[in-house]
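Morning - pyridoxal-5'-phosphate inputs below, output right after.
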Amino acid sequence: MSSTVLHFDARKLTENVQTLQGLCAPLDITLATVVKAGCGWEALARAALDGGCAMLADSRLENFARLPSEGPVVPRMLLRLPAPSEAGSVVRQCDISLNSEYAAIAALDAAAQRLGRRHRVLLMVELGDRREGILPQDLPALIDRVRHLPAIDVAGIGTNLGCLGGIRTTAEKLSQLTVLATEAEARLGYRLAYVSGGNSGALPLLLEGRMPAGINHLRVGFSMLLGRDPYTDAPLPGLHSDVFELEAELIEVRSKHSLPEGEVVLDAFGRVPRFEDRGEQVRGILGLGRLDTDFESLQPLDPGVGIIGASSDHLVVDLGVATERRVGDRLRFAPGYGALVQAMLSPYVEKRSAGVSSLPLPVRPPLRVSPGHP
Ligand SMILES: *Cc1c(COP(=O)(O)O)cnc(C)c1O
């Protein structure tokens, strides 16, 4: 048994998915549950599927390969733009992918033809965050080139905001997307299956009843997993914000001065460390470090505990002078998104899931072939 454990409450995640589904359903919004933070962990994807999610989304092909091969069959969406060299794997493992480059879509088309399949694409439009997506004025030309590819279906358009430029998802931006969707539909001569209004950053609009009509698809990870508002980090009503908990063991408890003593040079990470003078402290060291988590997005759950700093394998905490804590005691933390992903990735952190649903899982039939034009 590892001394460091990431606890995952599958039932709470399932309930979060159900709650989000309940918000989306009245507006005919298809919810893609984004499980990429789980790094392919089957228990996490299964909990999302148990919540009745209509689509499973991830940014890595390697994760899709590790996801459950049984259970409800829902379309699989690749979030990161495919590299042309991986087109074959994308077509084999995913039903739909987000795209902005003709070269990649042409490679998907060639791969789909070779495999005797069709592949659906969602064209990404850049609306200000300056990450992926083509400029709105370039969308018609891309559609004209892509629509003639024999094994490709243009299933929708979408946008992503907030991830790089920190741009808020607003009703104005999403209205712009719906206008582009209407124009795309006129060009294509059919209704788009998906007008994808973004990530967790779109949920506040949904909760405030300000989601523009015409947005019928969202891709949600952060708020589903952490139950929080992506802009304020405040818990969102009706969602569990304690799906995950990171637990680590004290390997040293000692009274030490809060200020280092001696000539200050660089720390192990090339920075000049700065500390506040808080006099004597009872400091604890946990067997948990930067290799295991992102301590800057870690929230201590035990009252009176404060994080001082971390090196590769050690997390140093202030336990408070009146502490009763001893070596061998365990402390608990709420991971933020960065802390969660890093803990998922760390081979040194044991992942323990509780409350796994006992729903019978039907055998998943062979990979489905996408239907023709929507
Ligand atoms: C990660 C990702 C999402 C999900 O974002 P959250 O903030 O976790 O909800 C949606 N769309 C794309 C393209 C992504 O890469």
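Note: Residues 357-374 have pLDDT under 50 and may be disordered.

O.
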